[in-house]
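mind reviewing both lines:
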Amino acid sequence: MSWSTRAFIKASLAWLTVSVTLGVAVVFHPEWGTFAPAAAVAGLLGFVSMVLFGLMYHLLPRMAGRPLESDAVAEAHWWLANVGLVLIMGGIVFEPLHFELSSAMVLVGTGLSAAGGYTFVVNLWRTFTPANAPTTDGEREGHEPVRPPRRVIARLSILR
């Protein structure tokens, strides 16, 4: 499993913990209801998005039969998405406390999260594009080909 897959899955579990904790806190302390949007953002943008990114980084290159275009871009995506989400959450949490920079935190965090999403799209798009098609040798320059395990090949040959 790649670093990006593990990192996104672990981040999703951390954001799920934050979301559930905030949700439980709001239930037991109704006066904290202003923090309910933060619980929702942590759950949707944190848990759901991060787990989907992790799964897609793992599955889609295998479906394409090619390695991911750039592991460095996937790592940059992880940092953009998580730092952006921390800023969004901070802005949401500090807004009811009348913190002057809370709106700016949400704005910058949203921009970072969006930039992370765009890097994800570009990275996977380039993984699937014809420009990355195999060379005459059947392999891309400088990359090890992605091949299914032998047991999968054996099972597929039974289906013929």
